[in-house]
Amino acid sequence: MSNKDLLGRRNFIKGFGAAAGVAMAAPALAVSEKADGVKWDKEVEVLIIGSGFAGLAAAIEATRKGAKDVHIFEKMSYFGGNSAINGGLFAAPGTPMQKEEGVKDSVETMVADQLASGRGIADEALLRHVAEHAVEALQMTLDAGSEYHPYLQQLGGHSVARTYQTTVSCGAGITQPLLQECRKLGVHTHNRAKFEGFLVGDKGEVLGVKMRDNYHFGEDQPGKVSNIRAKRGVIMATGGFAQNVDLRMAQDPTLTAEVGCTNAPGATGEGMYEMFRLGAVPVHLAHIQSGPWASPDEGGFGYVSNYSIYNFPHSVAIDRLTGKRFMNEIADRKTRADAELNCRDAKGNALPPILITSYEDSKKHPNTKKVLKYNVGWKFDSIEQLAKHFEVPLAPLKQQIAEYNEYVKTQNDPQFGKNMTEAKGKYIQAPFTVVRLWPKVHYCQGGVQINTNAEVKDSFTGQAIPGLYAAGEVCGGIHGVSRLGSCSIPECMVMGMTAARSMMKA
Amino acid sequence: MSNKDLLGRRNFIKGFGAAAGVAMAAPALAVSEKADGVKWDKEVEVLIIGSGFAGLAAAIEATRKGAKDVHIFEKMSYFGGNSAINGGLFAAPGTPMQKEEGVKDSVETMVADQLASGRGIADEALLRHVAEHAVEALQMTLDAGSEYHPYLQQLGGHSVARTYQTTVSCGAGITQPLLQECRKLGVHTHNRAKFEGFLVGDKGEVLGVKMRDNYHFGEDQPGKVSNIRAKRGVIMATGGFAQNVDLRMAQDPTLTAEVGCTNAPGATGEGMYEMFRLGAVPVHLAHIQSGPWASPDEGGFGYVSNYSIYNFPHSVAIDRLTGKRFMNEIADRKTRADAELNCRDAKGNALPPILITSYEDSKKHPNTKKVLKYNVGWKFDSIEQLAKHFEVPLAPLKQQIAEYNEYVKTQNDPQFGKNMTEAKGKYIQAPFTVVRLWPKVHYCQGGVQINTNAEVKDSFTGQAIPGLYAAGEVCGGIHGVSRLGSCSIPECMVMGMTAARSMMKA
After folding, report:
1. What is the CATH code for A33-83+176-289+442-505?
2. CB contact at 8 A, A288 and A330
3. Is B477's Cβ below 8 Å from some Cβ in A?
4. A19 interaction partners in chain B (CB closer than 8 Å)
């Protein structure tokens, strides 16, 4: 999905290269302005842009720390941002459920798993800070009324089961309760409110923002721009840019509008770019993650993603050309997405691999019914039927499944080194549930550089930009090359809480 | 080498994370300013920042296209920037020397080689534009008086021999003649002139710059800041940021001050960051290249780099732990640098691999004498002596060399698929010349996004920032993950020339 026409007065022009050389009609305006002599239309104490996990957690925490006048501004008509449609997966080390289930875990282990996925360039201090406060953030959601499945999941790249999931299998199971909690606490929430730039003091400090009201995403409409003074500062919780096709193509020309994307349409990155205009350091923008659990048979995150995330530990992923496994089904996201993209027919065309699960094991996940109902997953009574349907060579497939079932039995996968703990007793046997897999653009590892106080670094001074804080996907560097699944919610929430604490101490 | 203390009033503070939370003494200032009511101290026609390949080529081309008042501003005391100390290697397809030597090449072949090294995210349109104009740029250097070795080289990742090298084996063999040419043409060249930010019109167009004179790099000194109006616009040719340790560590925390760097000390990236403040799109900053031809036995680019670049095609690179080859000696830079970094002892400590060349073949390169003289390379009369000196297991080493010599004979390397064309008749035999290899930070693939008119894209409008052009290493995205050797000079010069042409047409 492209947002080329969805950005109102700031249209993205297709074909920068092609259009260049002709007269430029709409010049580039520096959007942030010096605040000298500006007329303030309104004054607030704490000003938060964005209403996803990070913004909501920041608002709650600021209020708990004594703020009396907290405002959240959301550009869309609905609250929750991209968070509301994510998978609702929350990793934390040392949780009550881990104790119940006898899972040994620690901050160190979780950080080590993430560093491995980050391929040497993750920010260890930030990862540790988040892991140390993850249980506290989980508690904030429980206090607000979030409900979780009564079991833990072990997601790809995690060395143990440490992931909670909301019973609605969706981030809305967290954003909705947090939003209600905000309103109970007296936080002011404004929708259709579009951030238009910072208002900056003589020393470069952020004094407030320009905010357009009555904003209708994707429409060119006037609205009224107000200058809002933020007494304690501004928290930018504006999310990633996966839905901004031009900007993601600047990093990777293969991520065209035709490539699937799991994100909400509002994930277009203006907040991040405005911070770069203030001097924030861009980190890792080139590292854009594709989700290896997505299906080419439905739009966005869909039903298959959560289905396959749950089922990967006790499933086999099969290359349809060879009938063989081609990856560790619970390797980290980048490893799996890269492996899937290599599944091609003899001519090099995409040949989405299939994930085969025993129906008896798959059906424990609530999405299984929906996957079958909406024809984005299929049930087969025999391996022959399955192989014929997907044109997979039968003999190698049968042999592969027999070999894999032996790994389930011995709890050892010599083929791809998969951790077989969660596969124990779960043999691949008829009837089968099958979905197709193909990566979709899911997450931007890159963004503005922050420290463990959620302060934003200035590229010249090397110090924090006063009055400015950032949290969540708008920040970069934390996860390095590739983020592990279920590590975004704890990051967003912990850094949102951290931003609020830093601001209330400043 | 660290530049933490070399940046004058804009000091980079070590440990942003650690320092945070305390009161911030020096706030972040937006450095560029609206030009409303500014008093212009001086007016020029064409204003170029930076005096490396890109800046010099831009100045010459602007003059040829009719500009009468062209100014180059250089912050260092000397002209030439990092270009002056690079390897002087210039790749171009379809050159006179290729015709003489019977090498078949084309724009398409050169672009294809670079796309492969770019690992799917290089900018094909820019690569093609540069390849199409590379011979023209080479001619500009010849017209100015540059002298080249009378042979072509086939560098790593190039499918044919297409690389010229200056007789001085150094970029100064190009920057010096171009600088003389500039002066002949009446270009005004200013050294110790520090760019301090843009002056921007009401519509976001670049009208001029703030420039500090009498600037002494690394010293905190006053100088005088002038406002200089640039009638036709500003060309930013300010280079990369490999010497800015804080900023490169933001992308890759392993690139500490202790990691070697081949760049001139002025490569600190302020110009790039100032363009981000105008709204330029940051592309691929995380992709920082290390040179696989560098030696841990000398500082910077040194003597070994050019020595080994020349000798790789007819040499074996040996892992000292195993006595075996560990890479294709002419693979692309990233492939080789990654392979070298994997050469470690049993405890995981760095064990720099060795490059073994027949002395008779190595001595054709002028640096061989210097390498031996300064003890950064060594001559051995026998394989036993060599193995003992570097503590390499003798038997596997002897066997490896025998096997490799067979590949030379058959012109086929089944071990690593090396193209053996340039190794023809060049057996590895005593006496030997040997150097040690270890990657050094060399090149920033990342920078601001430009188009084939050298215009700088604005992140919000998607259009060019009026009055602003950029060329050379300050730009990003062209090469993708990894640039091929000898492709920087053509890029810098072609895009410098292109910037001048675009400006003169605008």
Report:
1. 3.50.50.60
2. no
3. yes
4. 463
